[in-house]
Amino acid sequence: MRYSKQRAAILEIVNLNPVHPTADWVYEQARKTVPNISLGTVYRNLNQLVETKVLQAFRYKNVIHYDSNTENHSHFICDICSQIFDLYHSHEEVISSLNKISNHRITGGQFQLTGSCENCKVDN
3-class SS at 56? Predict the structure, then answer.
């Protein structure tokens, strides 16, 4: 992948903002430093960065979010404030447990968990 000023700006925005942004959010931020950038350019570059495994992408409520953390991890999404958190756990243990109760041979995957974050949860 060749260097481009626009792609570098897009990657920097995602790297510096661990909010798991959407393409629209990245576009709004990119326009501050690259005023003539188009939304199509942002989408095209984000897709290229995902294809080359520089970024990770996941879908939540039909919206794609981008993540600069390409380590093996899961996401927890708060149903109340919509904040997205990275969770680190042994994927192997979860997959092993699922293989015991399934007729399939599960080898990997991404996990998305939802609920209430520690700031939003109400003790019952």
Answer: strand
